[in-house]
Amino acid sequence: MAYRAPDDAGENLMDHSYDGIQEYDNPTPSWWHGLFWASIVFAAVYTAFWHFSEFSWSVHDMHRHQEAMHYKKLFGALGDLKPDEATMLKMMSDEKWRMVGSTIFAANCTQCHAGDGGGINGPNLTDDAYLNVRTLEDMYAIVTKGNVPKGMPAWENRLQANERILVAAYAASLRGARAASPRPPEGEVIAPWPAASPIPGG
Ligand code: HEC
Question: Measured between alpha carbons, how far is 107 from 131 in angstroms, rounded to an integer?
Answer without folding.
Answer: 23
